[in-house]
Amino acid sequence: MPEAAASSNLTESTKDKDKDKEPMPTMGFLDHLEELRKRIVYSVIAIAIGFGACWRFAERIYAVMQRPIMDALQRNGLSAKLVYVNPIEPFNLYLKVGMIAGLFVASPFVLYQVWCFISPGLYRNEKRYVMPFMASTIALFMAGGYFGYKVVLPQALVFLIGYGKDFQPMITLGEYSSLFLTIIVGLGVIFEMPILIFFLALMGIVSAGWMWHNIRYAILGIFVVAAIVSPTPDILNMCIFAAPMVALYILSTGIAWLVHPNQRKKRAEKKSG
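and the corresponding structure tokens:
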């Protein structure tokens, strides 16, 4: 009887392993194109709806956007007012603000469409990452944007305007909005580094050991990127850009260790043992 029970358990275990080793879903090239077209259409519709909802609040949104430049101008005793050189520039500005705000509002749905496009190529046990993927992607992007808005942009503006205080500034709406978006969106994208490393490590392309072994080169590359992205040439602002990137790299190394296939296999062997 014990042998029969052991045989039964072995059979059930074999069945469970067979379930885990499900065949990888496959799609033809035309099916991929059709799926991509559908996801793009859904995303465009969502962004258009978001734009329609945010268009009426564009002036209020831009009032928040221009607060750092207003504070920097006032601190240097200058007129806290931006200028424009083309009659249609304010209209185009609010149009751009409404579009960008609509994109932010629709971003959870757009990210879900991205996940729906890539999920057919994943195993069933890998599809459980959908909610952590969406939540962490949005949270990291917002954290990067907030860091840029509260720390990087004010520091850069104070330095730049203070450096040219002997001259009368004529800062246009378009120039400031471009600088604002470059810093905010740039830092938001940079803060997505752990998500990129997560997927690369999950597929076994990078490992925590490789990342830690090459950390000195990574730090050098981070400071090069910070020097390029930073709107000012001083060391302080470059370090302000680089510090969170170094912290994110270290965090990403830990994530790579957790999700790399070799580490998952070792943990599974320990549990089974």
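(Above: one complete record from the training split.) The chain has twelve helices and no strands.
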